[in-house]
Specification:
about 210 residues; alpha/beta; 6-stranded parallel beta sheet; 8 helices; 8 strands; about 15% strand
């Protein structure tokens, strides 16, 4: 089947962002008087938002954090991450070539739970922004994945029906969003799936490289 639009998750699908998120998380933990955590743990925690990642890190250290503490730590983490958003983050292999090919066939969008301003900053830093007509991040819509609203918003902006769009992600959150929106969905096997086997998450297909899309 040919699609009239392609909707991409960002972290763990297009870009391996865990190295810079791990640096920002450990900077924040140090400010809180806690030991750093291994990047492998950060990779396991990425995907549900900064606050969820912080909560997981505090739990890992058996530290109960109050809401004001979490607010303060979240500000520290986001500020650090914004200034170092692409120090080590890189697109996965074949991403730029795949986007270039697909963009000649149909419009592309990013649909992510990453804040929209940070999403745009990352795409700009990695020279990927030009491929996308729409970037839908946290804050663009009132609800976020797995709710279908971000996918519906992207399809509306691209002028296509959801049934004619393919959603490409890496986690159950993406599958749930795509299914609720009425999109077919493909998962990238090597992204951030929180330890879940991608083959069990209900996608139409699981791919080992985004180049499989072309």
């Amino acid at each position: 089947m040919s699609y009239h639009a392609y909707l991409f998750d960002l972290d763990g699908t297009l870009v391996d962002t865990a190295p810079d998120l791990s640096q920002a998380l450990n900077h924040t933990l140090a400010k809180a008087g806690l030991e750093p955590v291994d990047e492998a743990l950060t990779r396991h925690w990425v995907g549900h938002g900064v606050r969820a990642m912080l909560e997981a890190a505090f739990r890992h250290h058996d530290r109960h954090a109050s809401e004001p503490d979490l607010d303060a730590s979240q500000n520290v983490l986001v500020d650090h991450y914004r200034e170092h958003i692409a120090d080590y983050s890189r697109p996965y292999g074949g991403v730029a070539e795949t986007l270039d090919t697909l963009a000649r066939r149909a419009p592309l969008a990013v649909v992510t739970n990453k804040p929209t301003d940070l999403s745009n900053k990352l795409l700009d830093a990695l020279d990927l922004a030009g491929f996308f007509r729409v970037v839908v991040g946290r804050g663009t819509t009132s609800r976020f994945k797995p709710d279908p609203q971000p996918a519906h918003y992207a399809c509306e902006r691209l002028g296509v029906q959801p049934a004619a769009a393919l959603f490409i992600g890496d986690s159950e959150t993406d599958v749930l969003c795509a299914r609720a929106a009425g999109c077919d969905v493909v998962l990238y096997r090597h992204g951030y799936n929180h330890g879940r086997d991608p083959d069990t998450l209900g996608a139409d297909r699981v791919i080992d490289s985004l180049s499989a899309l072309v």
